[in-house]
C-alpha cells in the first residue's frame, strides 16, 4: 500500500527539538498502570509501552543519519475521528501505516514488531506489509474496528533498517474511532413536497436585479403568496414581484392557495411539515454530538467531531454541540466512502449559519439529495457560500449575495417563515436544469 507522507523532514526536525523528556503513567493498587509516551508538542499517548515515543519525536536512546526512525503515521497520533474500516479492504478491515526515515529490512516488519491493540484489550489479528521502497509499513486488520474506541499502534525496536541498525526507541501512536452515528432513514421521503425547491409560508423577497436569481424546481407560497410584498396571483409565476422576479423554468410551478386549486398548496405543506418533524431530535434521538459550535475547516479548533481538525464527516445523524445552533466556517466535507445511498441528518434545534467563506462539499459519491438540515429556528447562507443539502427551517431562510444551494430551501416548516434571496441559484438535486454536479 502506498502512503503519502505529509510531514516534511524539516518539520519533523523542528518538532523533535521540542521534545527531550518522556513521561509514564502510573497505576494504583499495585497494578503498575498504563504507561504513556510523550507526544510531539506535549501530552501523552495512551497505552504506549515504557520508553516509546511518538512518530517524529527525538529518541533519547540514539540518533543519527544511520539510525532509522518513524517519521509519520496514518492516522496521526491523537486523531479522534478515525473511520472504523478502510474502503476496499476485505471484510471491512482497517489499514493503518507507519513511515520510516530509512529503507527497512522487510523481514523484521511483521505482526510481532508492528501491532495494534485496543486500549485495555488484546492485540488485534492483522497482517503487515511493506511497500516497494521498504519505507512504509501497513498493518491491516481482519475486521472493522469498534466505533468510539481508543487504539494504540506500536512499532517495536525489533524493526531493523536495511543497513542493519534497529530502531533505537519504540514508537507508538494512539487514535480513537468515530462514534457510530445515529441511523438515518434512507431515503427520507418528502412526499408531495419532493419537486419543490422553495417553500415559504411568509412570502419571498428577491432583493436582486431582475433575472439574477434562478430557481430550478417548483415553488410553494402558502399562506402568504407574495413576492417582494406583491401578490403573485393565479398565473403560475411570480407576478410583477416589484420588478425583480426570480427566474424559473418552463414546466416548473409556482403553487399558491389559488393555483392550481385551493387544496394542493395545503397538501404540499402538510408533507413538508411531516418530514420536518421526522428529522427532529425527538424522532431521531441518539445523534452524534458535534465537537464545536462552529464546524468546518476554519471552525472551532481541535479534533472534535466536525471541528477544524476533523472537518470530514461520515454518514449519520449529528446534532449541534450545545443542542442549539450550528455554524459552518471554511469547508465541511461529507464523505460517502463510495456509498451512493449514504445519508446525513444535521439537527440544529436553534439556528443554522453558513459563514463567508463557507462550503459544504460532497465526496466519495455523496449526494445533496441525501443530506438534510433540520433547523429549529432560522437558517442563513451568507454571501458566496456553497451549500449542499435540503434545509427545512421552522422559521426564515436568508441567502446572501451569490450564495448557492444544491438542495431545497423550505422555510416555515413549523410556523411562519419567509425566504429572502439575493442573486442566488437554488436547485432541487437532480432537476433537469440544475448544475450537472447537483444530484
Which percent bin holds the helix content? under 10%
Please summarize the sheet with the most strands: 17 strands, mixed
The helix/strand class is mainly beta
Spans of 5+ residues with little confidence (pLDDT < 50)? 1-42
Number of individual domains:
2
| Mean of pLDDT | 87
Overall body shape = elongated
Treating each run of at least 4 consecutive H or I residues as one helix, how many helices?
A: 2
Question: Count the strands?
Answer: 30
- N-C termini distance: 32 Å
- Global Rg: 27 Å
The fraction of residues assigned to DSSP E strands is 25-35%
Feature tags:
439 residues; mainly beta; Immunoglobulin-like; 17-stranded mixed beta sheet; 4-stranded antiparallel beta sheet; 2 helices; disordered N terminus
Q: Mind explaining what this structure looks like?
A:
With 439 residues, this protein is mainly beta. Helix content is 6%, strand content 31%. The protein contains two helices and 30 strands. It has helices spanning 9-17, 264-279, and strands at 37-38, 44-45, 70-74, 95-100, 114-118, 126-130, 136-141, 150-155, 171-176, 196-206, 214-216, 218-227, 230-231, 254-255, 288-289, 294-295, 312-313, 316-319, 326-335, 344-348, 352-363, 371-375, 379-381, 386-388, 390-393, 397-399, 404-406, 409-410, 419-421, 425-427. The strands form five sheets. The protein has a 17-stranded mixed sheet that branches. A hairpin with a 5-residue loop joins strand 6 (126-130) and strand 7 (136-141). The model is unreliable at 1-42 (pLDDT under 50).
Amino acid at each position: 500500500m502506498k502512503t503519502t507522507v505529509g510531514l516534511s523532514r524539516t518539520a519533523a526536525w523542528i518538532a523533535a527539538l521540542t521534545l527531550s523528556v518522556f513521561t509514564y503513567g502510573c497505576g494504583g493498587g499495585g497494578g503498575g498502570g498504563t504507561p504513556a509516551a510523550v507526544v510531539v508538542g506535549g501530552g501523552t499517548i495512551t497505552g504506549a509501552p515504557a520508553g516509546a515515543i511518538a512518530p517524529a519525536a527525538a529518541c533519547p536512546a540514539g540518533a543519527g543519519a544511520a539510525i532509522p526512525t518513524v517519521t509519520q503515521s496514518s492516522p496521526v497520533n491523537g486523531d479522534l475521528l478515525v473511520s472504523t474500516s478502510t474502503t476496499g479492504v476485505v471484510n471491512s478491515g482497517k489499514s493503518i501505516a507507519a513511515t520510516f526515515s530509512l529503507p527497512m529490512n522487510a523481514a523484521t516488519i511483521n505482526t510481532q514488531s508492528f501491532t495494534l491493540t485496543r486500549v485495555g484489550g488484546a492485540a488485534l489479528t492483522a497482517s503487515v506489509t511493506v511497500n516497494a521502497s521498504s519505507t512504509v509499513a501497513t498493518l491491516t486488520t481482519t475486521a472493522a474496528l469498534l466505533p468510539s474506541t481508543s487504539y494504540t499502534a506500536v512499532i517495536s525496536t525489533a524493526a531493523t533498517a536495511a543497513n542493519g541498525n534497529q530502531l533505537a526507541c519504540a514508537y507508538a501512536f494512539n487514535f480513537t474511532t468515530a462514534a457510530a452515528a445515529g441511523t438515518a432513514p434512507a431515503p427520507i421521503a418528502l412526499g408531495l413536497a419532493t419537486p419543490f425547491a422553495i417553500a415559504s409560508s411568509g412570502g419571498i423577497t428577491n432583493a436582486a436585479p431582475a433575472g439574477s436569481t434562478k430557481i430550478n424546481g417548483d415553488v410553494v407560497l402558502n399562506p402568504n403568496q407574495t413576492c417582494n410584498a406583491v401578490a403573485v396571483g393565479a398565473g403560475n409565476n411570480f407576478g410583477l414581484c416589484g420588478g425583480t422576479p426570480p427566474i424559473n423554468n418552463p414546466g416548473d410551478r409556482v403553487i399558491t392557495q389559488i393555483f392550481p386549486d385551493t387544496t394542493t398548496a395545503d397538501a404540499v405543506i402538510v408533507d413538508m411539515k411531516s418530514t420536518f418533524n421526522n428529522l427532529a431530535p425527538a424522532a431521531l434521538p441518539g445523534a452524534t454530538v458535534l465537537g464545536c459550535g462552529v464546524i468546518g475547516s476554519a471552525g472551532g479548533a481541535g479534533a472534535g467531531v466536525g471541528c477544524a481538525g476533523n472537518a470530514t464527516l461520515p454518514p449519520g445523524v449529528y446534532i449541534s454541540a450545545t443542542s442549539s445552533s450550528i455554524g459552518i466556517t471554511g469547508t465541511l466535507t461529507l464523505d460517502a466512502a463510495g456509498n451512493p445511498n449514504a445519508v446525513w441528518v444535521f439537527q440544529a434545534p436553534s439556528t443554522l449559519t453558513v459563514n463567508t467563506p463557507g462550503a459544504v462539499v460532497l465526496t466519495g459519491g455523496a449526494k445533496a439529495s441525501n443530506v438534510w438540515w433540520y433547523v429549529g429556528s432560522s437558517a442563513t447562507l451568507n454571501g458566496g457560500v456553497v451549500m449542499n443539502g435540503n434545509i427545512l427551517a421552522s422559521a426564515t431562510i436568508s441567502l446572501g449575495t451569490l450564495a448557492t444551494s444544491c438542495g431545497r430551501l423550505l422555510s416555515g416548516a413549523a410556523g411562519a417563515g419567509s425566504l429572502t434571496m439575493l442573486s442566488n441559484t437554488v436547485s432541487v438535486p437532480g432537476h433537469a436544469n440544475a448544475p450537472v454536479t447537483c444530484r
